[in-house]
Amino acid sequence: MSVKQSLKISTAGAVAVLLLGSITTFAADASAATTRYEAESAPAVCDGTIDSNHSGFSGSGFCNGANAVDSSAQFTVTPEAAGTATLGIRFANGTTSARPVDLVVNGTTAQSVSFEPTGAWSSWSTKSVTVPLNSGGNTVRLEPTTTAGLPNIDYLDVTDGGDPPLGDGRKMESLGRGVVAVRSGSDSVLVSWRLLGLDPEGIGFNVYRSTAGGQETKLNSSVLTGGTNYVDSTANLSQANTYRVRPVIDGVEQPASGAFTLSANHATEPVVRVPLRSGGPVKFVWVGDLDGDGEYDYVLDRQTSPQTIEAYRSNGEFLWSVNMGPNSTDQNNIEGGSSTIDVGHNDGVTVYDFDSDGRAEVAVRIANGVRFGDGTTYDDLPNNTRQAIAILDGMTGAARATAPVPTDYLSDGPMYARFGVGHLDGENPSLVAYMKNRIGNGGFNLMFTAWRFSGSTLTQEWKFLRGNQNLPDGHNTRVIDVDGDGRDEVAEIGFVLNGDGTLKYSLGPQGVVHGDRFHIADMDPNRPGLEGYAVQQDNPSGLREYYYAAATGTMIWRHTASGTADVGRGMAGDIDPRHPGMEVWSFSGLYNAPTNRLAEPNTSLQPWPQTGLWWDGDITMELLNDGKFEKWDPNDPRPTNSLPRLLSTWNYGAVDASQNVQPTFHGDILGDWREEVVYTNASYDELIIFTTDRPSSTRLYTLAHNPAYRNDMTVKGYMQSHHVDYFLGAGMARPPQPDITYSGR
């Protein structure tokens, strides 16, 4: 047979989006030229044996590498021209542990790749990575980093000029399909997966199942072009079943996704369980692709003394721990230690791919005495009040860069921090740090800074000091493009900063003061731009809640009452399809935001204003309230304590974390566009991830590829709903394709 086989693949076509029973299409276009290099054929070199004893391989065999660190598989590839190429590495790993490998291109390690278990040696998967190649000959070498060696390697597909269509916008994660399967009934499994932000029109999917490590079987009779989920009612659930999907473009099947295995005799539950090491209580979980495989991994805190941060792969494999040191033992909510994290509305940690290399880093505010994941102790500051920001390697927890926190307010002690991520220049991610400390026993200093990580250095982009300006802050920050110019702004409950750190506007002169909750979203689809909604705490004017134009701060309406009140909660989301746009509510009634009219005339009937959640598959919002997934029914309105309930998290062993009512995280991290909610069990040795078990015909690209939504996944504070930058609700228009590129491309 030939050493290489050329496969020309066109990605033009039309994708169908099912919204409100109608089909809509949107356009994208790309083409790809793929060349296949078989591992068993020269000039490929296998440090091991060429075998054919496991079925499902391509060509005449596969490379079975020696179980040693110095074993490898090497390919010589010759793209048509220099440039970025996508490598599709087909492999099988019949063990129960991932096999980490360094991908070495032309003598330089391009990235580390984890080859996860595929369920059996006859079950093959494809790992896609993107690398630069020269014109002419290139060597691509797979070098194992443990004595377990390589997985079995079948072939290498090299696609030059075949990336998904890339805009010139912001750099975001190159996600995989996020395949997940839950047992949804006694004889049924719901399998769901991601539609990506830059998937071409015309893309469809086939779903495959392997039972007990056997041959894969395609389950659907025709290509799936509706909702990105599938109900499997034919599986033998007494055995383990492994699922993966294959995209179909112009009738041609593409490489398979990563696999998800539902264990034998699995419980009927809408839950994925991820094991953790034993440890103390967990308040927050962050997600990011730490190992570059396209799927989200987990970073979490331990509320011990001293505090710690831990990182885990998506399958629960422990990666590293950081000890926050003796300056984290004072955990006062307002004036604690210089390295204390995650108290009150403060965090000081977030996770994102800051240098856009395809692997996420961890940002953390530190002080002397912090011990990083590689065992190194930080002691570079002149005293224990001074602080710094560190960027940690996502795979090792080692510090890749540190930079001192500005000392403008140092005389009032260390500063607590709240971190977020935004693309302030419209292209590159920046770390945004809200930092605050108390002035004596009175007011508070407030400083915002923005930081850029180059891959080796951390540079401060700008600093903003509130000083004595009338700029009300709250308990949450949102980093979002409020004016639609492609560049993110930094929003507080009472003011907004431009992406360059200058003041855009303040709501203080319009009577706004401090408050606990605010939302920015496209609440009125018939009005251009985004809107804001917020509630107030003890406003002396009697202001309870207000609704404004997010781009300018122009007030649209406000609700006032006599006296003062601490309006501690406020929500925004489309929960009543009878009215255009979103509803907003605190405790004085359920209002339709665009019209400022009561959606429910009886003000004693309304949902509790805690957190929104997309869960059941329709495009109106569900609600998360202290461990209860609830649904507002406008035709059967009820008081807050008696809404119809979809599930209760405690029935699956989950316990609340932040503020004793919140999960550790919520967001779209698995499966289709609907959201996951992450808790721990009472022993803190397991993540309990709630993921929907309900089929849906609605087809939307993953919310994690929406810029506004993904930014908000990086923010904690008093946790609130995430929002996309288009209207998502009843009567919605087709959402535009996001103006993004994929990191590492």
Would you kindly provide a brief summary of this structure?
This protein is an all-beta fold and 745 residues long.
Provide key terms for this protein:
745 residues; mainly beta; 1 helix; 57 strands; 39% strand; disordered N terminus; Integrin_alpha_N; signal; Ig-like_fold
Write up this protein.
InterPro entries: CBM13-like (IPR055240), CBM6 (IPR005084), Filamin/ABP280_repeat-like (IPR017868), Galactose-bd-like_sf (IPR008979), Ig-like_fold (IPR013783), Integrin_alpha_N (IPR028994), RGI_lyase (IPR041624), RGL11 (IPR034641). The chain has 745 residues and is mostly beta strands. 1% of the residues lie in helices and 39% in strands. It has one helix and 57 strands. The strands form 15 sheets. Strands 1-4-14-9-12 form a five-stranded antiparallel sheet, with no helix packed on it. It has a five-stranded antiparallel sheet with strand order 5-8-13-10-11, with no helix packed on it. Strands 18, 19, 21, 22 and 23 form a five-stranded antiparallel sheet that branches. Strand 21 and strand 22 form a beta hairpin. The two termini are 33 Å apart. The N terminus is likely disordered.
